Amino acid sequence: MLTTLKNNRSLTFYQSEDEKVKMKCSSAYAGGISSVPIADTAFAAQIYTTKVNQAFLELKTSVIRRGMQYANNTVASRGGYMAENFVAGSYNLDAVVKGKTPSARVPALNKNGSADVVYDGGKQAGLKFYSDAKSSAKAQTAPKYEGQDRIVPADHVDGAKKELGNMIDKNIKKGRTDAARIQQEAKDRITDRICGDNGVESTPLTKKQSLDMAKSIEKGENGEIALNKVLKETGITRKVNRAVLKNELSGLGLAVAIGAGIGLTIGFITTLAQTGVTPDSLKIAVAEGAKAGVESGSLAAVSYGIGRTLGEVATKAIAGSMQNLGIGISENMIKMVNMGVVGTMTTIVFSVYQFIKLKLNGVETREALIQVGKQALFSMSLLAVSIAAQGIWGGAAGIIVSISIGIIMIIYAVGDEVHQRHIAEEIRVYTINECYPAFA
User: Fold this and answer.
1) Cβ neighbour number for residue 337 with a 10 Å cutoff
2) How many CA atoms lie within 13 A of 125 on its CB side?
């Protein structure tokens, strides 16, 4: 009977140290449960970074294209046209950076009195980039611009308002109330940027900066060098770099939090399941949970990094191959591909670490491979089901299914551990009682 009990590896008081190590090493299970959330986090970071970079590229492309379109115009005229695209493009970039929907555009037809920039569904703005503040202000006082934002160079705003104020005072004194009213509206609307209701705004541009961009086109250059300088001067380049860095750090932090949280939970619960709930076991469980959390969090960081580098490259390659085969690619399908790639990489990272950990603890290679293989099979099965759910329902279905099944499996495993521990304790007590000497 004792031999049979010893062969039952679920009974903890008969387990060898190697077997106890295997039960406490929960990193691979944490990796399996967290693989889909980590993949989703990496995908979200990829999407955001891609959108920001695309909006930045579109800003540069549209400004240069507009300059080339009016290459035969005067420098001042060409600079004004390029400023229109700069305003619209910088507005759209700011929208993307802030997670909003870009909406600014430069109308293809530019009739007399029509808006130079249209944004937020119907708001209009007209630009006047003249030689000085006085000229820019006067150009904005035409009645045909009523209802439009009056955009002037950033270094003309204060001077333009001062000039309009003088004009208003003179007309009031002369009794020209209609002219004063028109000028007052222009003064109230004079600005160096367009501002949306959702906090999105364009980047101010000076007169000199618009001329620098225009002169670059005139010299036969493509304008990129001068534009890059302007983008740096206006802070747009730094804004893009900071947004991308913040996004990546946020994604990394979320991935680490997911891995650490799942690892801590599994480590804590499984330790209690094996030892029972006592003051001493709670301390041990907290220590084991913290250790497992640090391990899983670190591995999650590695997995996220792989997902944002090799995973992104692999995802694009697979998506490209599918498109070449005539298969339509939606964003949800790309997300499924990314989930599969990053999830598989995450499982591999956690499994390799688990195998090395088991070997360092003296577990035989065969036993270590079996243990890791079972956990990897669990992880890949969970990943496959999550991908299928993602394909069927979309949205956050993959994460919901992954976490839900993971929780169910953990609850089942913990329940089984508790049950086996109770049986083992009963058998231990029974064996001790049976071995008491009999007294006459």
Assistant:
1) 21
2) 32
Burial 384-405 (b: 16+ CB within 10 A, else e): eebbebbeeeeeebbbebbbeb
pLDDT, one tens digit per residue, over 223-277 is 788 999 999 999 999 999 999 999 999 999 999 999 898 888 888 888 887 777 8
Model confidence over 195-232: pLDDT tens digits? 998 899 999 999 999 999 999 886 666 678 899 999 99
Buried b (16+ CB within 10 A) or exposed e, 111-143: eeeebbbbbbeebbbbbbbbeebbbbbbbbbee
Q: How far is CA 400 from CA 171, 259, 385, 396, in A?
A: 68, 16, 11, 6
- The answer to whether the CB of 346 falls within 8 A of the CB of 363 is no
C-alpha span between 215 and 62 (Å, rounded)? 17
Is the separation of the CB atoms in 237 and 206 below 8 Å? Answer: no
The answer to whether residue 23 scores a pLDDT higher than 50 is no
* Tokens found for residue 126: 């007209």
